[in-house]
Amino acid sequence: MSFLETQSAKGLIKEAKLDAVKIGSGDTYLPALGVFLGGTPLQIGALSTLPFLIGAIAQSCGMWLAEKVRSRRQLSIRLIRTQALLCLPIAVIPFAFESGWYAVAVLIGVAALYQITIGMLAPVWGSLAGDIIPPTSRGEFFGFRNKWMAILTFAGVLFAGQVMHYCSERKMTEWGFLVIMTLAGIARYLSASPLRTVSDPLLHVPHEAKFSFWQFISRAKHSNFVKFVFFVSFMNFSAAICGPYFAMYMLNNLSYSYHEYTLVVAAVMLAQFLVMRSWGAISDQFGNRKILTVCGTLVSFNPLLWLISSKLWFVILVQIYSGIFWAGFSLAAANFVFDAVSVSKRARCFAYQAIINGVLVFAGSLLGGFLVTHVPSTWGKQLAYFVEPSPFLVLFAISGVLRAFGVLVILPTFKEVRQVESIRGHQLLIRISSVRPIWDATFAFVSNSYEVVSGRRRGR
Question: Taken in order 404, 406, 408, 414, is the CA torsion positive or negative?
């Protein structure tokens, strides 16, 4: 029997589906809420990364809890419901405070509490899922799960975008944020219930499997996994230099409406839906490092494409390109952790990886916020061959160059951790870009929910 047919898999997938609605209707619009409240570039950068840093540090608490509690399932349910309730204070901020730095500061503070619950949940959920999901089914499971997350995030983004467009047209934007954040909270609260059907094995961590964060860092020269962590974190650092500021660039510099902003964001989700299942199959067959190499190379070009045109149709194409290859990169990075780390060390390694990643992402955001307000205006003009001059163009260029550095210099320092079939990069691209994966994904959208829920699945 396929793992996807088990009660545990169904519970994890149902939880992910409702979480995706929360992400699409709530998390995706937090930067836009910061812009609406009058945030400066540095504040928007802090909103996008400071809560994530605090959440990453909170993973050390989640790691400790995962090793101490008797029921990781019950702890996950409580953390999810606490996270859901924190959506409500975010929803009322536009009513409670006038626009300005104070309102944005309050938003950052509540978002930090929100991310603490996510950070504490990550090692608990990750260690539980790692114990439940068989190694040979991880690519298939996460490809299937992430595909559904992509399509429901897409649906959440579209619905929230319609709400925001309707409300902004009537000069009642704050009511739009109230509606979409309330929806996000309800969806997340309901997502806890399906976890009750998930297996809950007791986690035993022997003393020799416990090590400090500094011991983890000190192995950087010799540990294949630590080198992998630094590669992924550096890539995220490079992305954070410009990533938090795309919302401000689109809403302020390009003067996109909420409708247009929604289309741009939704394009990423649609692309992920089309290819996620195929990335999962490729991960199982050819390993994760090959995907990281190909996708890491291609996402290096992504921010540079924003220098070519600011036309809406072109930006949507860029987002589709981005969604395809960031989907592969993210899935391979997550699966690599499960492959490289033993069960007893998994929660600890999840937490330590998140701390390193959180620090570097926050540093990247601060660097981006500093540069966008301090670079000479001539720099933006020199890059503006095809688009209007803007200091954000400098961030796009720097981000692309640093991503390429990570692929060329840091990625070669670690290797694949399991025996897999070999494939050339261009052959992998042919597999992911051919019509078959797109057809499979489209067919799966129509048929797989019935097949999995009913316990029947056709062989291919």
Answer: negative
